[in-house]
Design a protein that fits this description.
The chain is of the alpha/beta class and 681 residues long. The protein has three domains: 21-170 and 237-401, TIM Barrel, CATH 3.20.20.80; 410-609, Class I glutamine amidotransferase (GATase) domain (Rossmann fold); 618-679, Golgi alpha-mannosidase II (Immunoglobulin-like), CATH 2.60.40.1180. The radius of gyration is 26 Å and the shape is globular.
Length: 681
C-alpha cells in the first residue's frame, strides 16, 4: 500500500511504478510568511523529500468562523508541493478545535476523573464521545474531502492526529452515556454486567443502567473490572471516531488510502493498536526516544511491535525527531550518526517511509525547541546536512520498498489487555511494569544476537519455534487452549510471573496460580511473593531476581527445574521450570531477572527449539540483525548497537549501504548501519 501510494508521485519512463521509500515531515506552512514557502520546497528537493503531512493543526485557519471557510492558502500549498514533486498526506485538521467552537460549545471539552474540565490552550481539547464535536468535525472533513478529492498532490488522508494522546480517558456525561451503550452491547443484560463486574462485592449491584458510571474518583479502589472495561471502552470510542472520519473520506475519495498516526512507544497504552490496525489502509506510527539507558533497544522494540501490529507488512513512520524534543525534563540532542541509525532501524523493521516532526523548526509556540529537519540555524547546519545524507541513503535503499519482514524463529507476545489489567491498583505490587518486562526479554535476545518478532495476541504463533509471553496476566479460556495447542504441536512457550491469573472479566482462575496455564506448565503457586523495592533474591544459577517470587510446587511428571531459589523465603524451591508438552514444551520464570539475567538463562530456553544466533559469535550483542524480503530481494540490516567500530566477517551479498574492509568483512562505524542484499529474489 505505501509503495503504491508513493509510486503515484513518480513513474518510470514507461509510466510504470518506481519503488521508493518515503521521506519527509509534518509541514506547517501556516506558521510562516508566504515567501518562506519557496525556500521550503527548494530545500525539500535538496534533501530528497517526497512526502509531507499538511494541515494537522489548521482548523482555526481553514474555518475561522462557523460559516466562513478559507482554503485559498491550502490550495496554494498543495499546488506548490505538487509542482515540486512532493506528495501530500493531508490531515483532516480535526485534532485541535478552534476557539470559536469551544467558546460556543464548552460541552465538547474533556473532563477528568476528578470532575475537572480540560480547557482550551493546548491541543486535543475534545471528547471522543461528544456528538456536538463530531458534528462539527465531520463537517470539516467533508469540506476538505470534497475540495481536494481530485488534487494530484493528494496521496493519503491523515485522520486527526495522534488520537488519544491527551484525551484517551474522558469521564464526562457524554462519556458516561456512551459507556453505558457500550456495556449494553457487550453484556446485553444487567445480570451479565453484575456477574462480570463482581458487584456482589462492596454492595455494588446495579438495578438500572442509569446507575452505571465511568470509574470516576472514588473513596477507595474503583471496581477493577469497571476500570478494565472503561479502558476497553475508551480505546473503542477513539476507534469509533476514527471510523467516522474514515467513512466520510471513503465516501468522497474512495481511491485515496486512509491512515492515522499510532503512538507505539512506552507510556502510550490507552489505545489498543492491535485492535485498530484493520481500521486503516496502512499502519502509521509516531515514535520518540525516551532516555532510559536502553533507549535504542526500546526504539527497536517499538518498531518491531509496529511491524507486528501491521501483520509484517510495510508501515509508515509518520513522526520521529531529528534531534532533541521539547517535552522531557532534560532534552538531549542526538549524537552524530544517531539520526540515521534511528531512522534506518525503523526501516529495518518494516517502515517504508521515514518522516519527522517537523519540516521547519517553529519560531513560536509550545514546540519551538523541538528539533526539525530545518533547524533554527537554517540549512547551513550539521543537522540539515545529516538530513540530506539520510535522504541520499533512502534513495539507495529504494529496492527495499514493499518488502516485508522475514519472520524470526522467536516471537515475543505483547498483549494490550494484559498491559492494562496487570498494572491496575489493589494488586500484589504497584511496582510491576508490563512494558519493561517485555523489553527485558527483547534486550536479552539482542544481547545474544537472536532475531525476534514482537507479535500481538491473535497472531499466528505457529510461525515461531519459541513464543515468549511475559506477564500474560489476562488469559481467556480460548487463549489458554491456543497456547496449549501451540506447545503440544511442537512449539515452545515461555511465560513469567503473574501470568494466566485472570480471565477476560478480571476474575481469578481458581485452584492456584498460574491459573489458566497451570496444567500446561505443570506447576502450582499457592501465594504470590512480591519483593519490596531494593530487595532481591539469588538463584542457584548465579542470577539475581527482583520484584517478584513465587512459592512453586511441581505438579506434573516430567516438569524440569532449571533453577532454584538460593536465598529468600523460597530458598530451595523452584524458580524456573520447564515441562514437556506433546512435542513441545512450556517454561515458567517466576521472578524478574532483568535483561542481563535473562541473557544468561535464554540459551537453555532456546535450546529445545533449536534456536541460535545467525550472527558470527564475535559480534553477537554488538550488532542487531533484521531481515526484509520482497520482490527486490532479501535485505539484511546490520545495526551497530555500540559507540565503537564493529567488523562483521563472513557475510555475502551486495553492500547497498555501509563499508567493507580489504577482506570483504562489513565494517560498522560507531552507531552505524549497513544493508546487504543477500539475494535478488
Amino acid at each position: 500500500m505505501i509503495s503504491t501510494l508513493l509510486s503515484r508521485l513518480q513513474g518510470g519512463a514507461d509510466g510504470a511504478p518506481v519503488p521508493r521509500l518515503g521521506f519527509g515531515a509534518d509541514y506547517n506552512p501556516e506558521q510562516w510568511p508566504r515567501e518562506v514557502w519557496e525556500e521550503d520546497v527548494r530545500l525539500m528537493r535538496e534533501a530528497g523529500v517526497n512526502i509531507v503531512s499538511v494541515g494537522i493543526f489548521s482548523w482555526a485557519r481553514l474555518q475561522p468562523e462557523p460559516d466562513v471557510w478559507d482554503f485559498a492558502w491550502l490550495d496554494d500549498v498543495m499546488d506548490l508541493l505538487h509542482r515540486h514533486g512532493v506528495g501530500v498526506d493531508l490531515a483532516t485538521a480535526t485534532a485541535s478545535p478552534p476557539p470559536w467552537l469551544t467558546t460556543a460549545h464548552p460541552e465538547i471539552l474533556p473532563v477528568t476523573d476528578r470532575g475537572e474540565t480540560l480547557w482550551p490552550g493546548a491541543r486535543q481539547h475534545w471528547r471522543p464521545t461528544s456528538p456536538v464535536f463530531r458534528e462539527h468535525a465531520l463537517r470539516l472533513v467533508r469540506e476538505m474531502a470534497t475540495r481536494y478529492a481530485g488534487h494530484p498532490a493528494l496521496v493519503a488522508w491523515h485522520v486527526n492526529n495522534e488520537l488519544g494522546c491527551h484525551n484517551a480517558h474522558d469521564f464526562s456525561d457524554d462519556a458516561a452515556r456512551a459507556f453505558r451503550d457500550w456495556l449494553r452491547t457487550r453484556y446485553t443484560t444487567l445480570d451479565a454486567l453484575n456477574h462480570a463486574w463482581g458487584t456482589a462485592f462492596w454492595s455494588q449491584r446495579y438495578s438500572d443502567w442509569e446507575q452505571v458510571l465511568p470509574p470516576r474518583l472514588a473513596a477507595s479502589h474503583p471496581n477493577p473490572t469497571q476500570q478494565l472495561d472503561f479502558k476497553r471502552f475508551s480505546s473503542d470510542a477513539l476507534k469509533d471516531y476514527l471510523r467516522a472520519e474514515r467513512e466520510v473520506l471513503r465516501e468522497l475519495t474512495p481511491d485515496v488510502p486512509v491512515t492515522t498516526n499510532f503512538m507505539v512507544m512506552p507510556g502510550t497504552k490507552g489505545m489498543n493498536y492491535a485492535d485498530w490496525a484493520d481500521e486503516v489502509d496502512f499502519v502509521a506510527n509516531d515514535h520518540y526516544v525516551v532516555p532510559s539507558g536502553r533507549e535504542r533497544d526500546e526504539l527497536s522494540f517499538s518498531a518491531n511491535l509496529t511491524s507486528g501490529i501491521a501483520g509484517g507488512r510495510p508501515w509508515f513512520l509518520m513522526e520521529h525527531s531529528t534531534s532533541a524534543v521539547n517535552w522531557q525534563p532534560v532534552n538531549l540532542a542526538k549524537r552524530p550518526g544517531e539520526l540515521a541509525r534511528d531512522s534506518l532501524t525503523h526501516v529495518a523493521h518494516g517502515a517504508d517511509a521515514v518522516c519527522f516532526f517537523q519540516w521547519r523548526q517553529s519560531a513560536a509556540g509550545a514546540e519551538k525547541y523541538h528539533s526539525a529537519m530545518v533547524p533554527h540555524a537554517g540549512a547551513d547546519s550539521d543537522l540539515f546536512r545529516a538530513v540530506t545524507a539520510l535522504g541520499d541513503t533512502l534513495k539507495v535503499l529504494a529496492p527495499v520498498a514493499g518488502s516485508e519482514r522475514e519472520p524470526a524463529e522467536v516471537g515475543i507476545l505483547f498483549d494490550w489487555e494484559s498491559w492494562w489489567a496487570s498494572e491496575q491498583d489493589s494488586h500484589p505490587t504497584s511496582l510491576l511494569d508490563y512494558h519493561r518486562e517485555a523489553l527485558d526479554w527483547y534486550s536479552a535476545l539482542l544481547a545474544l544476537g537472536v532475531r525476534a518478532d514482537v507479535v500481538t495476541t491473535g497472531a499466528d504463533l505457529g510461525r515461531h519455534r519459541i513464543v515468549i509471553a511475559p506477564v500474560l496476566h489476562l488469559v481467556p479460556a480460548e487463549l489458554a487452549k491456543d497456547l496449549t495447542r501451540y506447545a503440544e504441536q511442537g512449539g515452545h512457550l515461555v511465560t513469567t510471573y503473574f501470568s494466566g491469573v485472570v480471565d477476560e472479566n478480571d476474575h481469578i482462575w481458581l485452584g492456584g496460580y498460574p491459573g489458566a496455564l497451570r496444567d500446561l506448565l505443570g506447576i502450582r503457586v499457592e501465594e504470590f511473593g512480591p519483593l519490596p523495592a531494593g530487595q532481591s533474591v539469588e538463584l542457584d544459577d548465579t542470577s539475581t531476581g527482583t520484584l517478584w517470587t513465587d512459592h512453586i510446587t511441581v505438579t506434573a511428571p516430567g516438569t524440569e527445574v532449571l533453577a532454584h531459589y538460593a536465598t529468600g523465603p523460597h530458598a530451595g524451591r523452584p524458580a524456573v521450570t520447564r515441562r514437556a508438552a506433546g512435542s513441545g514444551s512450556a517454561a515458567y520464570v517466576s521472578t524478574r531477572l532483568g535483561a542481563e539475567g535473562l541473557a544468561a538463562l535464554l540459551p537453555r530456553l532456546l535450546e529445545p527449539a533449536g534456536v541460535s544466533s545467525e550472527l558470527p559469535a564475535a559480534v553477537r550483542g554488538s550488532v542487531e540483525a533484521t531481515v526484509r524480503r520482497g520482490p527486490g530481494g532479501r535485505f539484511l540490516f546490520l545495526v551497530n548497537r555500540t559507540d565503537g567500530s564493529v567488523t562483521v566477517p563472513g557475510l555475502t551479498g551486495d553492500v547497498l549501504v555501509g563499508a567493507t574492509g580489504d577482506d570483504g568483512a562489513v565494517v560498522l562505524g560507531p552507531r552505524d548501519v549497513a544493508v546487504l542484499r543477500t539475494s535478488t529474489t
